[in-house]
Write a structure and sequence with these properties.
Strand content: 15-25%
Radius of gyration: 36 Å
Distance between the termini: 48 Å
Number of domains: 5
Structural class: alpha+beta
Number of strands: 27
Helix content: 40-55%
Oligomer: single chain
Largest sheet: 8 strands, antiparallel
Length: 764
Amino acid sequence: MATKELKIHVGGMTCAACSTACEKAIRRTPKVLEATVNLATSNATVIAEEDIDEESVLQAIRHAGFEGTVIQDDGVVLDDENRYHMAGLILCLSFALVLLYIGMAHMFPVKLWLPDFIAPEISPVAFAVAQLVLTIGIIIIARGFFVSGFSNILKRHPNMDSLVAVGTTSAFIYSVYYVWRIISGDVHAVHSLYFESAGVVLALVTLGKFLEERSKNSAKKAISSLASMIPGTATVIRDGEERKIDAKDVQLDDIVVVKPSERVPVDGVVVEGEASVDESMLTGESLPVYKENGFKVSGGTICKDGLLMVRATGIGNNTAIAQVLKLVTQAQERKAPVARLADKISGVFVPAVVVVAVLAAVLWTIAGKPSAFILQVFVSVLVIACPCALGLATPIAVITGSGRAANLGILYRGGDIIEKTAQVNTVLFDKTGTITEGKLKIADILPLPQNIADERTAAFLNNRFSSLESLKNGTPITQETLLFLAASAEYGSVHPIAEAIITHAQQSGMQLDKPKSAKTYPGKGITAEFEDFSVTAGTMRLIELQEIQYQHLPEIPQGCTGIYVALGKTLIGLIALSDTIREKVPEVIRSLESLHIETAMITGDNQGAADLIARKAGIGRVMAQVLPQDKEKEVRRLKSEGKVVAMVGDGINDAPSLAAADVGIAVYGGTDVAAEAAGVLLMRDDIHMVVDAFKLSRKVMRIIKENLFWAFIYNSVGIPIAAGLLYLFGGPLMSPLFAGAAMALSSVSVVLNSLRLTRYRPQK
C-alpha cells in the first residue's frame, strides 16, 4: 500500500488533553494509518494512504476544536508562541493584587487598612461590587480559558482550560449570588465572597502559562537558530555580472559569490578564492576551516575572511543545513516510548479530575460542611490538577536535548532514538574508517634480494635512478625502484591501496610513468604494460593467477596488508600498507567502559591485522574476517544474547548492520547509504562524539524521568490534599489561591528543568 506523510501545524492546543484529543480525532479519520501530535511543537505528523483527502484530516482537527494548517514542501513551523502578552499579564496581575488586598484585608488578625468607601463593615455593597468589577476585568483579560474550556466540554474532550473555567466560574457565580444577598440587606454575606479565588487563580494560571510559553520558546531557540542560518539571498554570476537573487532561485552549477562575513547560501565546491569558513553551526567545531579551490563548503556556514567563488551542488532543501534542520525537527515529532504512559493518562486525566472534584464535594456535603467549604474544595481540586506537566514532560526535553545535540553536531532521528541510545550497553565498531582513519599508508617496502637481468629494463631504471649500480648479473631492486614500478602500474587508479602507493611515491618526488595499458582484477590487483616490460601489483591470488615465479616470499608485517610486486614473471618484492588508528579511539573506549558499555570491533580484515588494531584501541572483543553481508548477522546474534546494541560505521557495507542494530551511529564522512540507515548522525570528524551521543541521551532521559516523576507526584499528592485529605486528619484546608499557584508552577518547573539541557557541555 502506497502511503504519504502529512505535516500539520495545529493551533489552539493548551495542554496534554488537547494533544491527545486531537491525535484521537486524526486517527479516526478514514485512510489515516498513524498520527502523532506533539504539544511542545504544536505539530502533527500523519501517515496515511496516498489518496487521502488532506481536507478530511483538517476537518477532523477543526471538529475537535482546533485549527490545522498543512506544512508544505518539508517546511518547518517553529514560530514562537505569543498567546500571552506582557501588557495583558501585567494588567491581569495588577487587578489580582488589588482584588486580593481588598478581599483579604479584613481577614488578618491585624486588619489591613481599607478606605471607608470600600470597607466591608462600612460600605459592604461597595466592597462587594469593587471585587466584582475587578474579577470581571480579569475574566475579560483571561477569557481564552473560558472560550477554550467550555467549547472543549461541549465537544466532549475537556482539557486543562476546562478545569480552570469550571472551577473559577463556580467561585464567581457563588460570589455573585452573595453580592445579590448583600445588596438585599444581608451584610453578613461579605464573609461568603470568593472573588479572589476566581480572579487570583486566573491571574496565577495566566502567569504560569506566560512563563511556560516563554520557556517553550527558549527550548525552540536551538532549532530556530538552525533555521535562521539558511540565507535568504545569494549573489550569483549571470552574464558575467554579479546579481543578488533569492537563495531559492539559485540553480545547480551556478557560480555563487561569497564575501567576507556572509553566509554560504548553497552547498558547493570552491572554484576560485580562499578563505577561513566557520562551520561551527553545522559541525560544532569551533575553529574555522581553511577552504580553497576544490574544497567543499556547506550552506549556512560563514565566510570569515577572503572571497570565495562557489559552484552550487546542493540548493534549497537539498543543502546540508536544510537536511540537518529537517532531521532535527523530525526528531521532535517521533515520540519516545516513555511518553506513551503520559499520553494514556492525559487522555483520561481531565474527566477523572472532574469526578474527584464532584465526589469530594458530595462527600463533604454528606459530612455536613457549609457551602463555602464545599466550594473551596471543589475549586481547589479542579484548579490544582495539571495535565500540562504530564504532557510536556517528554516532548519539551526531547526538543531541548535534540536542539542542543544539533549544536554539538549530533543528530538524533527521534525521541525514540534518544531513549534507545540511553539504554545501549554494547557498542560494535566497524574498523576501517571508524576505529582507523580509513586512509592506508605505506608501512614498509621490502624488495627481494634479486637483480634485473633484462638489459632494456635495467637501462630504463638506470636512466631514471642514477643511484643504481650495475652488477655483472644485473641491476639490483631497491626500495626506490620497487615503489616506482608499483606506483607507475597503479597510475590513474582510484582504489584506496593504489592511492596510498601513488601518494607515497609522489611525496618522495617521483615522476611516474603512465602504462600503455592496464588490466584490473577486482579484489586482486592490476597488471600494467609498459614499453619494454610489464608490472603486476596485487594479492597472492593474483600472483598465482599470473603464474609468477618466486623462490621465497617476504613476510608481511603484523597488522599490515601486503601488495606483491612482480616484474614480468618474476616476483621482486612486497609493499606493506597499514591503516592508522584514530588518535582519540583509546580515550573513547575508556570513556565507554566508564559508562558500563561493552565494546567490540568487527572487520573483514584478517585476524592478525584486526587484533593489532584492537590492542592499540583497547578493545577486548574482536570479530575478524567477517564478510559485509555477515555483519548484520553478528549484530542480530549480539541482540539475541539480550544486549542493547549500537553499531558505529561509515560505509555502504555497514548499512545493513546499522539498520539491524538497536541504534545505528553513522560517523562523519561516511556514505549517504550509511547515514540513511543510522538513527544517530555525527556531523564532525571527531570519534569522541560517539561518547557524547551516549552521555547526552542519558542526560535527556534523566531529565524526562525527573519531569514525569514530578508531574506524577505533584498530581498524586496535590489532588488528594486539595480534596481535603489533610483537613480530614486535623490539618489545613487548601486555598484555591495556593492551588492555582501550584498548578502554574508545575508545568513551568517541568520546562525549566528541561532547559538545563541547553547548558550541557561535553566532558573531554
